Amino acid sequence: MNSIxxxxxxxxxxxxxxxxxxxxxxxxxxxxNGRAAFVDTGCHLSVPMLLATLVAKNIQVENVDYxxxxxxxxxxxxxxxxxxxxLPNAKVYVHEYxxxxxxxxxKLRAGVIKVYGELFFKxxxxxxxxxxxxxxxxxxxxxxxxxxxxxxxFINTPGHARHHICIWDEKSQGIFSGDTLGVSxxxxxxxxxxxxxxxxxPIQFDPDAWKNTLKKLMQYQPKYAYLTHxxxxxxxxxxxxMLIEHIDGFVTIAEQFQNExxxxxxxxxxxxxxxxxxxxxxxxxxxxxxxxxLFKGDLEICAQGLGVWLDDSYLRKxx
Length: 319
Ligand SMILES: [Zn+2]
Prior knowledge:
Blueprint: E1 5-7, E2 12-16, E3 26-32, E4 35-39, H1 47-56, E5 64-68, H2 74-77, H3 80-84, E6 91-94, H4 96-103, H5 106-116, H6 118-125, E7 136-138, E8 144-147, E9 150-156, E10 165-169, E11 174-178, H7 207-218, E12 224-227, E13 231-234, H8 237-256, H9 263-281, H10 288-316
Parallel strand pairs: 4-5, 5-6, 6-7, 11-12
Antiparallel strand pairs: 1-2, 2-3, 3-4, 8-9, 9-10, 10-11, 12-13
Helix pairs in contact: 5-6, 7-8, 8-9, 8-10, 9-10
The structure holds zinc ion.
The site of zinc ion has 8 residues, from loops.
């Protein structure tokens, strides 16, 4: 096991929540002038890692002011209900469309079990605990909060999910991006830089909204993206272009199999070939079996999300 956390600069710490494997799901701790905030929490089973990081860094639980949730997918927010029990002064910030689902997580739980199955839920996500309503604050577009002496700003960022927000950190010129600035595993880094692709997770993937969101975020001229999957990367226009290219690439694959039998299986196979091809062009030297292992979880979820999107667009177009 890697160490649970490592310090970046600007008072930011990346915590490996140990969900599924090392270096897969990050949560972040931001410290400023004696106050602290978590950005995302990992799942329910990740909470001991977050609390251990506070202890290791000598931060009192009373000094944590915020849990900021980029969105309510359980690898990002599933631990918030458990974590808030340990943080007497913290408030949970979330997009208005996500709030009801964390106050009463029964629908969220059912939806997740439908996608992942009961066994996966228990084994890898653990549980899902409601968050008391009085602990929740709606994060509105362009609202700013103060942590110590730094300003954090919420930005509505639909595309991966309608209820997704990003958090702009003026101090580091970075964006806490949840899933909006893509997935990029450090195992695929080469001298060409980072390989970034879109998690087209069910059930609200919206490619047009996502591309508009990227335009909006690039106006901030960020230096960094703090990705949940995984860790901080430098984020440039080239990174944004790569993500847009692969959003389009994934959509093209989905549309190609729209009316086929075994659509899900075919999309999944085609996505794998697509990812292996872009990894090869990117100069990735891992052998294919290792790459398949690293892409495996994303393939299933991305193919499901594309399937939902196909069905939704079919309805939208009234065909
Ligand atoms: Zn997500």
